[in-house]
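Teaching assistant's notes for section 4

Start the section by putting this record on the projector. Ask students to predict, before seeing the second block, whether Uma2 family endonuclease will look compact or extended. Collect guesses on the board.
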Amino acid sequence: MIIAQELESQQNISQDVIFPPGDLYSDEPPLETELHLEQIILLIKCLKWLWKGRNDFYAAGNLTIYYSPNQKKSEYFRGPDFFVVSGTERKTRKSWVVWEEDGKYPNLILEILSPTTANTDREFKKELYQNTFRTPDYFWFDPYTLEFAGFHLLDGEYQPLTANEKGHLWSHQLGLYLGIHDGLLRYFTAEGNLVPTPEESAEQEAHKAARLAAKLRELNIDPETI
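Reveal the predicted structure now:
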C-alpha cells in the first residue's frame, strides 16, 4: 500500500515538473508599435542587401542573447532591438547563445526607444552593453521624437559620437554612417550616399536602363538589338 502511494506521488510530481528544452527559441516580448517593426526590418534588410556577398556576419532584431557565465539559458539574457555580430557564420539562429558562439558578443547594438523603455535603454542597457557585453558601438533611436544618439567604446567607456554636418553618426564596426531619412534610421556610405533597400536598388537600375535606352534611340540605335 505504501509503495503504491509513493509511486502515485512520483507520477503526480513528474506531471507538474516541466523541463526546459535544450535549444530555446528567442523569448522576447511583442514589439510595441508598427514603426518599431518597420525600423528593425529596414535595418536588417538594407545591411543584408549591402553585404549580400559576405558570409561573415549575423544581423538580427528582437532576438534573445543568452550570456550567463554559468552557461544557463534560465539566467542572464537580454533581447536588443537590433544587433550585428562580425566574424561569425551567416546562418539562421533561434537565439544568440554567447557560449555557443565562441564567446562573441554583438559588435553593434541599437535600441529603439519608447515611453516604457527609454530610461532602461539610456541607463541600464547602456551600462550592460558597456561593462558586460563590451559592445563597441551602441545607438538608440526614437522613431516618434527622432531622438538619435550613438556611442563608441573607448578605453572601456562609451564616448558620445559627434554627428557630421548632415546629422549622421559614424559606426566604426559597420564602416557606415547611420542617419535619419524620411523619419526612419538608414545607413549611409562614407561618401554620404544612402544605402538602398533591394526594392530601391531595383528601381534605380530600372531608371538607369530607361535613360540608357532613351539615349541610344537618340543616336538611332535600337536598344533591343544590343
